[in-house]
Amino acid sequence: MPPEHSSDDDIVVTGVGLVSPLGNTLPQSWDALIAGKGSGRWLTDRAANWHFPGSETERFAGCPVHQPMPGNADFGSRLVQLAGIAAREAVGSAGGLDAYPTHRRACCIGTSKTDLAPLDQAEFSMSILWPSHAAAEIAARFQCEAASLCPVAACATGVVSLLSGADQIRYGTADVVIAGSVDASLHPALLSSYRRLGVMARPGNRPEQACRPFDQHRSGFLVGEGGAAFVLERASAAVQRGARPLAILRGGGFGCDPSGMTLVDESGQHLAAFIERMLDRLQLRIGGIDSICLHGTATRPNDLAEARALQRLLGSRLGDVPAFATKGATGHLMGAAGAVETAFAVQSLQAGVIPPTTNLQIQDRECGVRLSSQSVHATCRRMLKLSLGFGGHIAAAVLERP
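The chain above was modelled as a monomer; its predicted structure follows.
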């Protein structure tokens, strides 16, 4: 294994692209997030039946992306459309990939599952059902000949994809990587499954306020869709071609919570031990972390696991380290969640602003992390991003402001 970090030539993020329920670009989504807007609404399109099975009155709520999605006519499935929009913005903001030969470009676009919408049609191409379909299409369109990868790690997929993409540079496989993840889980079959698991929020009459991470009266999440992409490269190469680093990807790691397929260790013990081991590998101390981007699903087990893990690690500093969770604004984007939230984390470091935790009204006293219902100015240097997924998947990354 190569070292997680080489201080003489960091891996940096030079481009970010984002499509989310809050907007079709990173600036649109960021502005809506900072304003505390929620994206939940009743689902009425793109499916034959958005009612609960066996009910003609109970409806599904969710967080779809804005319609129409500009410039997506040349893309195929929903996953490919989302990946295409995010990748084009990321590559554009990085100043293009022309400085790198095609055999030194790699692509790492993950997802938690395939797009199920084609199954509702009489005819479709089998290739659309491959989870790697979006990665393959993006690799072809941006001539990424070094590698085409598709990590699948449930709701931790986004961070796993980002770190796996960085590994391609560390291993010497590629010099530049388009990394990220997408997800399109707004399908009646999936929504019904989440409802049976008891993790779906009760929308009442205000679906935009339904998802309330770390709130005393939280009831679960709404499902969203979207994606984010990043351009990763060595700092020296970025400077040489005149690109501006947006964040340093200091490193990260993967772990496992063995509590069960859909269970989380509410004590936070497994998560805390994982974070401690990861920071040790990166030769960092928890005292060097001055901000946190949480997973925050608005379910009691997840919120308690994160809060208690951080309490174990930070102790009396827990209330001094600003944190935020974005699912109250975007919904839970499943396989895309980690990537979209990391895009917000990069923007937070750039702007010197900690976003609000949307819909937080009365914080759960058992969750003592420092959250705010309003955006807060804070010049942070190093941010920890956490992601947890069904099946015990855990991933975390450490980002630094250049």
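The domain at 11-240 is CATH 3.40.47.10 (Peroxisomal Thiolase; Chain A, domain 1).
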